[in-house]
Amino acid sequence: MSVVDSMSLPNDDAPVLEAPKRSRRGKYNAKEVGLAFVFLLPSLAVFSVFFYLPFARLLSWGTYESVRGGASYNPVGLDQYKDVLGGDEFRQGLWHSLQFVLYTVPAGLILGTLLAVAAHRRLKGIKVFQAIFSSTLASSVAVSSVIFFFLFNPAVGFFQVSWQSDPDMAMFAAALPAIWQNLGLAFVIVLAGLQAVPDEVMEAARLDGYGAWRRLTRITLPLISPVLMFLLVILVIYGFQAFAQIDIITKGGPGGASETLVFKIFKQTQDYGKGAVLSVGLFFVTLVVTFFQFAILDRRVHYGDE
Amino acid sequence: MASVTFDAVSKRYGEVTAVDDLNLAIDDGEFMVLLGPSGCGKTTALRMIAGLEDISDGKLSIGDEVVNDVDPSRRDISMVFQSYALYPHMTVQRNIESPLLVRSYQVDGPDQPARKLTKAERDERVAEAARVLDLEPYLKRKPAALSGGQRQRVALARAFVGRPKVFLMDEPLSNLDAKLRAQTRIELVELHERVGTTVVYVTHDQVEAMTMATRVAVMSMGKLQQVGTPQEVYARPVNTFVAQFIGTPPMNCFPGKIAADGSRIEVDGGTLPLPAGLIAVPAAGSTVTVGVRPEHLQVAAEGSVGVVVRAVEWLGHECLISASIGEATLVIREVGMSPSAAGNDIRLSVDAADVHLFDPNTTLRIG
Lengths: 306, 367
What we know:
Chain A is mostly helical. Chain A has 13 helices and 2 strands, in the order H-H-E-E-H-H-H-H-H-H-H-H-H-H-H. Helix content of chain A is 66%, strand content 3%. A two-stranded antiparallel ribbon of chain A has the order 1-2. In chain A, helix 2 packs across helix 13 (272-297), helix 6 packs across helix 7 and helix 8 runs antiparallel to helix 9. In chain B, the strands form 4 sheets. Chain B has a 6-stranded mixed beta sheet with strand order 6-7-8-3-9-10, sandwiched between helices. Chain B has 8 helices and 20 strands. Chains A and B meet through helix 8 and helix 9 of A and strand 6, helix 2 and helix 4 of B.
């Protein structure tokens, strides 16, 4: 963890040398470039087979239009991209995916962090609580979805509500197991981050007069900000990719009110071309959102080495 | 500024007693060094002053106030940690300023309520601390961009900037190299003279204790062994532990016997003079532990003890001669280069005043 690295001290008083700034496009000769490609070859091969080629194939599928329920496909070029990505279905799916992310990410992140801060103490029996809080991570999406499906079942549930059939609440009902699972993941990772914060730094803060809240907001959270950033990015990606919760709890219903982009892609069993376009759309949405997270938030993250 | 008083203070962790019935009065403005090997309880004692450890038993006072249940931030103390414990995400400036930002200070005189410092007052104090500790060029940097010595000075600046009553230091020099450590020792003494604050300083390095302390408190196994000026603990150690912990190489301790006529000490290879002013005169024929510092043994043709040289280590300005005396090994420090070599028989003499006697059972000093 970078927090720890920053605390390992050089033992002399010599001036700290700045790493020489290398120009972005270094001057490499042909031999060096050739050698670099040889070293890159193994990973290039793996990525080509499992990512680049399938992705290229996906892009090309998007240019074919399904005829008579998938009986045959006509090449239509980029028209299908224009139609589908500009259409209501994509926009609706995107909105539902976004809703899912907004329900699951902040709640999971905040609850997980608070629990981790609470459980980061040397108390007797705290390990039991640490195990309980992190257990949500160990249960599969299907299991947790089924738990929540029955927990909130209108007929046999512990809470007899009919969220699954309420268009305004369906998305939230599907989000609950994801919040529950995100909480466990956030808990485990934030706890590890907290353990990397040196005790002496927190003790110094106590002596300096920082109260519990100030220690949390001014010392702990900045020091674990790389961990929080990582969690934010992957939880958002998980959110955009979520499927099983929706399939098990609402089946996209009622009336498509909880159909996320992924669920809409899943439904294209008769039209691979459209499914491909939606997939490409989801890919770029995720890419853009992640890019903006880095662009906006990364400046506030302390990695301990600048 | 304030005194610190341990009144029968103990600290127990379950079955383990880290500090056992500690009684120690640290005077106002004193530079007190808690010295001992690792695990002797010195750091625990320091952390109890800071309030980072609860006190199991006894009373701890800072000034006239019993602080057993006072929160660390209200004790008006500051601490320099071994790892420095700087805030890695803050600049040097913010690090130094941090206690000033959150604490209130009684700056308007003793009768006025404590208040937060204004920005101008904070800037002035940070600038002063940075000037004293040579940190002015680094104020905008983060700790990761500083060397070990610079980080150490930032930690000192952060501790001094609030002008606390007591200043605690936990092995602050142990992460520095030998040269920088020697230099910083002198700077710390100067800093202490300048501010006059009570300092409690924990170390396992007796050189630091001897060079900086007003008084040294030697601890072992959770118990206080001896308190005194560096000269006192060197010249009159109360037991064999203190005798061998202070001084490098340590004091030679080996068995001896009071001669039948009670005038000398018989040891393997000869006799040694009996020191004057014994606390308790041991009976003739009783066994004792004899202690002689390496620097007090002289190689002399007419010396009263004969030993066999095992090795001679030449260090440049001095020699360390290892020699066998019965089962034990003696170290003799000789200035310059020694004519002796391994296998030689040499004779040693020592002044009566430089002979220490300890009870072999209790290890306590008897003369």
